[in-house]
Amino acid sequence: MKILRFLHPETQIPRWGLLCENETVAEIQNPFRLPCQLSGRNFPLSQLRLLSPTRPTKIVAVGLNYQDHIVEFGHPVPENPIIFIKPSSSVIGPGEPIVLPESAKQVDYEAELAVVIKKRARHVSKEEAPEYVLGYTCFNDVTARDLQKKDGQWTRAKSFDTFSPLGPWIETDLDPGNATIQCYLNGNLKQCSNTRNLLFSAWELVSFISQVMTLFPGDVIATGTPSGVGPLHPGDVVEVKIEGIGILRNEVQKEPCIRS
What we know:
The protein has four helices and 20 strands. It is mainly β. Strands 1, 2, 3, 4, 5, 6, 7, 8, 11, 12, 14 and 17 form a twelve-stranded mixed beta sheet that branches. It has a five-stranded mixed beta sheet with strand order 9-20-19-15-16, with no helix packed on it. It has a three-stranded antiparallel beta sheet with strand order 13-10-18. The relative contact order is 0.22.
């Protein structure tokens, strides 16, 4: 089941829907208030603007969770998940532009599998974790690499507006432990791996993070990126493709000059 958020051009009110096989969208009530109900209204997908499939209170992202990415950056293998927060203000949906800030000289793409939380989670065990997950989506952990190195910590580098593309929808039926993940830049394959190669699985991450903080419905856990990360430039098109979910596509723009 694919759950999405959309705008209809006649109303411009965000709505929830289920993607149907005939390229139509069946409107539903809030999927976090289960069981969700059909409204009885259907729309052609081609008439809708897709939004980020969730509006999280926070994104809890994980660094250095693929062995090849650890080697790529020359870091030691972590004993526990390395987590950091990305703000909700950084979230954009499919088709929205990634904006390169003037203050950053190198901004990188990072393709990741994202876990979307279904219900309030605190002190959840690894075995219980699947009960707390609504589904999965594509994520691009856009990063100002030069600022990350300069600051010595990751908050500024990860938190600019537009640095958290999510989408195109939430897939509820996916094995998070065996999905091919790829990133294409202007049609060229840059990253390719499988979630089998995660050091800490999706279930382990849900459990670990819930021991630290409360996760709320709609919150996102970004599970980390494989090797092959690289810079973005104005005019680029970056695509995160995950087997069983789909493709998250965003163009890249330069930040417009702001005159005082």
